[in-house]
Amino acid sequence: MPHTETPGTEAAPQTRLRWWTELPLIVLVYACYSAGRLLVRGDVSDAVDHGLAILRVEKALFLNAEHPLNRLFTREPWLGVPADFWYASLHYVVTPAVLVWLFRSRAVRYRAARTWLMTSTFIGLIGFTLLPTCPPRLLEASHGFVDTMAHYSSYGWWGGEASAPRGLGGMTNQYAAMPSLHVGWALWCGVMLWRHGGTRTAKVAGVVYPLVTTLVVMGTANHYFLDAVAGAAVMGAGFLLAPSVMRAADRVRARVTARFSPAPQGSGGANSPIVSGGCQTSAGDRFPRQREQRPGAGAEPDASSTDAGNETPAPAR
């Protein structure tokens, strides 16, 4: 059976990856992600309807983790303020840090891990496009949610519009709640730390980071529980698609290389594998300056047609 590589288990890449090629690629993907969230705003009424529909589904399934967590974070600043800092900053810090760590110390695993992350991010962007969703904090107050980012805005750099710096809230899409890539990226980081960390501290961090992030996104009223589930599902889909994406990228790279590589030189001349330089020789012919072989003791000289016309006297015995 053909062997299919899964992300994080393949052999070393055929070409060595360089940071000056990886960094622009990552920046490009993140720019596409940010631009997609900004441009695909969707209709506000549809986003609100989708948010309320998620709430109804959660109530039908007896899932109501958002309300108690949000009340706890609103009532206790010692929990709410760190949670807001966690939500506003860590996904910008931890995810790139794990990528750099993999690149420097786990280069064999890096390409698959990076491809997994980027594939999942693009899938999440599709979700933002097809299903704009109003987060709990933007629903009417009658639904019982408090925007902790606005509630504790005096403690941080953010204002009342998502986690953007003050005055830049209009540059974000506040209705990109489904799926939660905060949870998805945290799950990716957790898997990388668990599988490749090598220490107990790294494995503990790999478990704690995605779990705390899930609690934070719900407690700050930025995501529903089903948004977090969808974020994990997106990462699962990216994991399954990453090997196909890498194979497609390899095929494209091979075609580009073949198209722009110099044509091989023709046979003959200096590159000919024939030692005679392309000259044909027959049996008995000697190359220029070829030394005559002396017959062994007791052996008669070999008579041949070429020696018959040679008038050079035989060497004295």
Describe this structure in words.
The protein has 317 residues and is mostly helical. Helices cover 57% and strands 0% of the residues. The chain contains 10 helices and no strands. α7 packs across α9. The protein is globular, with a radius of gyration of 34 Å. Residues 1-6, 8-14, 297-301 and 303-312 have low confidence and may be disordered.
Please describe the topology of this protein:
Layout: H1 19-39, H2 44-60, H3 66-75, H4 77-105, H5 107-130, H6 148-151, H7 181-196, H8 200-219, H9 225-260, H10 305-308
Helix pairs in contact: 1-5, 3-4, 3-8, 4-5, 4-7, 4-8, 5-7, 5-9, 7-8, 7-9
Number of helices: 10
Task: Work out the radius of gyration.
Answer: 34 Å
Helix content: 55-70%
Number of strands: 0
Overall pLDDT score: 77
Distance between the termini: 72 Å
Query: What portion of the residues fall into strands of 2 or more residues?
Result: under 5%
Low-confidence region ranges? 1-6, 8-14, 297-301, 303-312
Secondary-structure content class: mainly alpha
The ordered H/E elements are: HHHHHHHHHH
The rough form would be described as globular
Largest sheet: none
Oligomer: single chain
